[in-house]
Amino acid sequence: MPKPCIICVAITGSLPTKANNPAVPITVSEQIESTQEAFEAGASIAHCHVRNDDETPSSDPEKFGRLLDGLRKHCPGMIVQLSTGGRSGAGRERGGMLPLAPDMASLSVGSNNFPTRVYENPPDLVDWLASEMRSYGVKPEIEAFDLSHIHQAAKMNADGRIPGKLYVQFVMGVKNAMPVDRDVLEYYIKTVQRLAPEAQWCAAGIGQHQLTLNEWSVSCGGHCRTGLEDNVRLDRDTLAPSNAALVRRVTDLCDQYERPVATWRQAREILDLEMPKPG
Fold this sequence. Notes:
The protein has helices spanning 28-41, 61-74, 123-135, 147-158, 182-195, 210-220, 243-256, 264-270; strands at residues 7-10, 45-48, 50-51, 57-58, 79-82, 104-107, 112-113, 118-119, 139-144, 167-172, 200-205, 223-226. By secondary structure, the chain is an alpha/beta fold.
């Protein structure tokens, strides 16, 4: 039986705006509605940011709380993963929502270049974020923008700073960071399998590379990330009508490669996450 493919939908991020694509959900209510559609289409993880009314990134724990409550109500069982990324805040502000105890949270364990700036993840901040995740029972999703990040995550796993089985996401296609290269992806997969044999991996392709990484991930036995945070188009000329449309594109690939789409229950089992409590 082929391994079920977990589909993560990154619903809004901090960069795409309604000017880029009117389907990008900005308000909490828009994000809940868009995520519910994606959940019903086959996504089992929601990767979440929140925005201010002017569409700028926010680290407001109150907004994260309303979003988390809404997703738990309207997408029962779905894995909610909150972002601790650097565009929404600085320093420990980035982890201000972790006491909400989401199922997962993103964790970048090293710095790297972005198109116009350095994405700073100094060791003391990484250790603090990891400790907060341990304290509140939040599973990290390692966002690997560089080979060194895979090695660092494996080291933190071995010494207990990141307990349990690793979940590593390769982010490919960010300018000045990891390139979109099949040989590189295959080497990264082998590296994860060598350093952390029990780990699960996922890949995300940015912009025009999203579909390419979706197909590579499905065909190589990994999990997938899609969504309007990373890409606002179905193709060069067609805007994506919704997050759900991008999810359905991945489910079509799963059919093509004869891999079942993971249900939320299967996704929780694969990632060693607790099942939600009744009521």
